[in-house]
């Protein structure tokens, strides 16, 4: 490779590690040589040669759900660009003892870094106590691997949903929250409550679900306390609520509006299509890898410039406040 480019081996190494300070003409020589030789890095050979790992362990809850699966796919793709392999370890339980057992059975050989999804305080503490052989990045807020600045107590995107309902004339809101101990559920609940207070809207009632459509359906089957609109903490619970209300004879949004959060693929195809907040989970996965690689090696560029997008997506499940409502 170096001979083909007419440069030293050290220069090729510096190029592959994205070092600054290489003259443009020299950089171009190396780039052309890599292209002509169809160079592909061999991470396994590198790991064996340097005795450093090329594996990244990703401990992730609810991998079958839209957000976590998007995070895992984006993280895997991003890591591959740097010669790393992501091994996803699904965590189907939030029980600390069960998760500790899973972690203890994972082979950490040739592990370069660890990403851990800790949606509750108990699991965040657990991962902080586990001894790993490589750098660890623990995500705690539940919206994907956001930057540190988003590790606060309020979900800012709830302002968009509440402002939308306020504009439509809604003044009485009911909240279908996520699991009470989850960081993301807490942030979305507090975001909705703060936005409602700022706009003079009343939270007439609230219940905690478990992120599932079933729990949203069960809550909407109960007393919504004359609310004109329901804010669900995720799309699945919102979809369950729509189904339950339809079974009771209520029309959405003519009788009551429903909004969700996440913008899962199904959200655009419900009856009616669901108003929601779109989260760029793929950006979360890429940023997670960038942040972890910056812990593994300072030579790896850190993706600090990428923001986790949040966008309001208005659809037909929300409409003007009705005078006759549940």
From TrEMBL:
Q: Name one Pfam family in it.
A: LacI
Do you know which PANTHER family this protein is assigned to? HTH-TYPE TRANSCRIPTIONAL REGULATOR GALS, LACI-RELATED TRANSCRIPTIONAL REPRESSOR
What is this protein's name?
Answer: LacI family transcriptional regulator
The HTH lacI-type domain covers 1-50
What InterPro entries does the record point to? HTH_LacI (IPR000843), LacI/GalR-like_sensor (IPR046335), Lambda_DNA-bd_dom_sf (IPR010982), Peripla_BP_I (IPR028082)
SMART domains named among the record's database cross-references: HTH_LACI
The UniProt keyword set, sorted, is:
DNA-binding, Transcription, Transcription regulation
